[in-house]
Structures are given as C-alpha cells and as structure tokens.
C-alpha cells in the first residue's frame, strides 16, 4: 500500500526533473532550473545521511522552492490584472526570498512604477469585485458536479472505514478487491466496491488531489454523465484487468483498494479526447502534458512495490478507449477548456 514517505520522496525527485525537462532550453526558466537543482541536491544529501527522513526533507525543499513560488507568482498575476499593484509588488518582493530571479526583481520595479502612477491618478484605481468572493477550490469545481460527487462519496466511504482503513481484514469485509474471492468465491461486487476504499489518509488524499486537478476540465469538455461513465467503467476495467492478469499468472494475487485505476482512466480519456481533437489550439501541448503524467505514474509504480502497476495500466487503457468512444466528434460540441 502507498505510504506518505514514498509519495513525498517521489515528488521531491520527479517534480524537479519535470521542471528541468520542460525548461532546459528556455533562458527565461533559468531560475526555475536552479531551484530544481537545489531541491534535487537537498534530497540527495538527505538520502545519503538521513535516509528515513529524506522524503520529508526533500518535500519541504520542493514546497519552499518550487510549489510556493509557482502559486505565489500566479497570485501576483491575478493581482496585477485587478490593478492592485501595491499588493502585487509586496507579494513579488516576498517571493524573491524563496525564488530570487532577475524577472522577479524587474517585476517589483515595474509594479513600483505602476503603483506611483496609480497614486498620481495616471492609472485607474484597483478594480473591485462586488458580491461574495469564491475560493479557488470552488472555482475549479464550478460546472463539475460529477467530480464533486465522486470526491464527496470517496470521503464518505473513508469516514466509514475510520481507523480501520489500514486493517486488511476490515478492508476485505468492506469490499476490497481480492482476485481469488472474485474468481472462486464469485464475489463480483468487489470489482466495484474496491474503487471507493482507501488504505490510509495519504492514499485517499493522493487520489482525490489527482482527481481534483485533472477531472474538472475533462468533465466540462465531455459533460458530467459521460465523465461519470468514464470514471466508473475505467475503474471496473482496472479491477477486471487485474483479475484476468492473475488468471494468466502474470501478476500475483493481492488485496487491492483505491480509486487510482479510475483516475488513470480519466488520464486515458484525456488522451483519447485530445487525440480526436489534435488539430485544436494547444492540443499537442496538452497531449504532451498527459504523456508526462503517464510517464511519471509509471516511474512511481516502478519505484513503489506497494502500488499495482497492472491496475493503473488497465484503467489507463480502458479510459483511453472510452475517451475515443464517448468524446463528441463535432469540434463545436467539444467545449474549449484548459488542461492543468
């Protein structure tokens, strides 16, 4: 089963490598490359001297040097768009502590100039949005009722598991996937119930976060009903695939729980959707993002023995063919969305 340590260690290694791969030839990304090298260096040193804490140390470095600056810069852009130059300047100046770069220094100077002109009345005052301010969480889930429903259901089932979420006996009683019981005990319902069970809070949060990131845009593109079908059928395909592979003696029988097969099905459906609409603007770039996600997942599966690669691949393949089958063929029907 997935442990938090493995997730954090993998994140501290793969995320900087992804930054290096995507910005290797870009001069504008030099500061991000430096930050990525520092994160990898800190993680490597921690692995040599403090192996059991390396995942937490590396994840801390990733949070401070890559994640927080990326989120902060996005907020700076939003503040600038609202003509709140004073707040944008202060936030950009604070981010320089974590992410010193020539671009940020230039931004601070630019915002200082805009702030002065705004004070002199040469630029209009900051725009004010009336009404209740919605959170980024709500904004992302807006128009994605199926994703919201699935998140709530998974959380509710985990609440039922309670403190027994890491007890294999309890998980088996609740419906964990056991290929032996499915084949010889004819307990076929386990193919579906296992998709909503999770082994520990880290396992649950990992899957729900992935669904939250990649799910809403696809749902808005193909519709909630299609998305729900894709999610559930991909999960069933993942479970059934594991059982068939066990019968073929390719994998060993093991108890499996989790929504990761469903989530990988969503990734596969994205690939099918983008393949059908490959001539749309930015489709190739978005497809490359999907391929990067698949490569990262495969690398994670290979480095984490507790994870079932067969379940992920079966869900991915099922989702891909579902994406090809249920995606609207008319480009006018496929609403333009932004991936990740």
Q: What would your notes on this structure say?
A:
With 340 residues, the chain is mostly helical. It contains 15 helices and no strands. Helix 11 runs parallel beside helix 13 (260-276). It starts with a helix and ends in a 14-residue tail after the last helix.
Topology:
Layout (H helix, E strand, L loop, with lengths): L3 H20 L6 H20 L4 H28 L3 H14 L3 H18 L16 H6 L3 H17 L6 H7 L4 H6 L5 H4 L6 H23 L1 H24 L12 H17 L6 H21 L5 H18 L14
Helix pairs in contact: 1-2, 1-3, 1-14, 2-3, 3-4, 4-5, 7-11, 11-12, 11-13, 12-13, 12-15, 13-14, 13-15
The share of residues in helices is over 70%
Number of strands: 0
Sum up the overall morphology in one term.
globular
Cα-based radius of gyration, to the nearest Å: 23 Å
Work out the helix count. 15
């Amino acid at each position: 089963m997935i442990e938090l340590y493995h997730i954090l260690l993998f994140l501290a290694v793969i995320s900087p490598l992804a930054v290096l791969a995507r910005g290797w030839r870009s001069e504008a990304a030099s500061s991000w490359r430096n930050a990525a090298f520092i994160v990898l260096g800190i993680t490597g040193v921690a692995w040599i001297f403090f192996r059991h804490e390396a995942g937490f140390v590396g994840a801390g470095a990733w949070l401070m040097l890559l994640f927080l600056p990326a989120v902060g810069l996005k907020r700076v852009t939003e503040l600038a768009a609202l003509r709140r130059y004073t707040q944008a300047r202060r936030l950009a100046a604070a981010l320089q502590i974590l992410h010193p770069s020539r671009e940020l220094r230039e931004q601070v100077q630019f915002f200082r100039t805009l702030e002065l002109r705004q004070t002199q009345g040469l630029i209009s005052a900051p725009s004010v949005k009336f009404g209740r301010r919605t959170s980024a969480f709500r904004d992302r889930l807006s128009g994605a009722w199926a994703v919201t429903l699935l998140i709530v259901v998974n959380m509710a089932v985990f609440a039922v598991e309670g403190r027994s979420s890491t007890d294999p006996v309890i998980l088996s009683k609740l419906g964990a996937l056991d290929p032996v019981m499915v084949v010889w005990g004819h307990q076929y319902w386990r193919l579906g119930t296992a998709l909503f069970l999770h082994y520990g809070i880290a396992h649950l949060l990992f899957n729900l976060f992935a669904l939250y990131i990649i799910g809403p845009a696809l749902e808005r593109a193909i519709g909630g009903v299609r998305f729900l079908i894709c999610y559930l059928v991909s999960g069933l395909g993942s479970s059934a695939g594991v059982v068939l592979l066990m019968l073929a003696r390719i994998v060993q029988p093991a108890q499996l729980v989790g929504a990761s097969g469903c989530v990988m099905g969503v990734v596969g459906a994205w690939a099918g959707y983008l393949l059908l609409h490959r001539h749309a603007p930015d489709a190739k770039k978005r497809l490359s993002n999907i391929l990067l996600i698949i490569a990262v997942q495969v690398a994670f599966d290979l480095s984490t023995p507790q994870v079932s690669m067969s379940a992920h691949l079966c869900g991915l393949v099922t989702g891909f063919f579902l994406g090809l089958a249920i995606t609207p063929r008319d480009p006018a029907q496929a609403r333009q969305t932004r991936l990740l």
